[in-house]
Structure to design on (237 residues):
């Protein structure tokens, strides 16, 4: 079946000398994995390596056999050419980290257009703005809405956040954040991408990042700590 769709690159793995195996989150069909036979063939190749950098937004035409095997691109072009992300070391570290997170989070070969649109909008915002210190925290929390474990906010006056159930509580159990951590988490819940970037200091962002990674690990089977996490912590320290 021939499909025209937007796609966000999740990962690209070199195969032998000239080929790539590219995992994409497509607007039309969810996760799809493609074989690019001539990725390293020549500088004039249509399928340029630049297309397959982490979280690049593409517009593709592809052959989808939908048999659980590798699919094939027929045509590729940039859906949104990033202006700053791949030239800015902080933004590059962010997209590398987030691509790893998404690699472990999105498994389904089924359409999830609201999540695709949310992710695309967030990446365009990242490319167009400079005050991005809280971007990854806001995005990680926002994505939990689409994964089904966004925190219940009905009891936010309670002093502790219970990680397993995702609720605020008056009792400090074993799986609860401390009171200080809960205060930080409540602040994060109130943020949007264009909120004040200096609301947190560096060590508070590190605390929140650890909380969010732990929260994902609790709620998503098979979730692994991203290898680029330490790089991201170093960049924002």
């Amino acid at each position: 079946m021939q499909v025209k769709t937007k796609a966000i690159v999740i990962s690209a793995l070199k195969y032998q000398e000239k080929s790539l195996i590219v995992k994409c989150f497509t607007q039309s069909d969810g996760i799809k994995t493609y074989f690019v036979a001539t990725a390293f063939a020549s500088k004039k190749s249509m399928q340029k390596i630049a297309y397959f950098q982490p979280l690049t937004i593409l517009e593709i035409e592809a052959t989808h056999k939908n048999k659980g095997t590798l699919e094939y691109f027929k045509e590729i072009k940039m859906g949104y050419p990033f202006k700053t992300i791949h030239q800015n070391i902080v933004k590059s570290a962010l997209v590398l980290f987030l691509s790893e997170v998404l690699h472990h989070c999105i498994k389904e070969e089924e359409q999830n257009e609201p999540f695709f649109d949310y992710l695309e909008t967030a990446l365009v915002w990242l490319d167009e703005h400079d005050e991005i210190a809280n971007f990854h925290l806001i995005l990680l929390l926002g994505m939990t809405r689409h994964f089904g474990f966004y925190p219940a906010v009905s009891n936010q006056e309670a002093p502790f956040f219970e990680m397993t159930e995702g609720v605020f509580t008056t009792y400090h159990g074993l799986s609860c954040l401390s009171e200080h951590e809960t205060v930080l988490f409540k602040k994060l819940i109130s943020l949007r991408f264009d909120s004040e970037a200096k609301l947190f200091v560096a060590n508070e962002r590190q605390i929140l990042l650890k909380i969010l990674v732990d929260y994902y690990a609790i709620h998503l089977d098979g979730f692994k700590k991203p290898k680029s996490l330490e790089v991201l912590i170093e960049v924002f320290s």
The chain has two domains: 1-81, 83-237. Strands lie at 2-15, 19-26, 30-36, 57-63, 72-80, 160-162, 167-169. The radius of gyration is 19 Å. The CA atoms of residues 158 and 170 lie 5 Å apart.
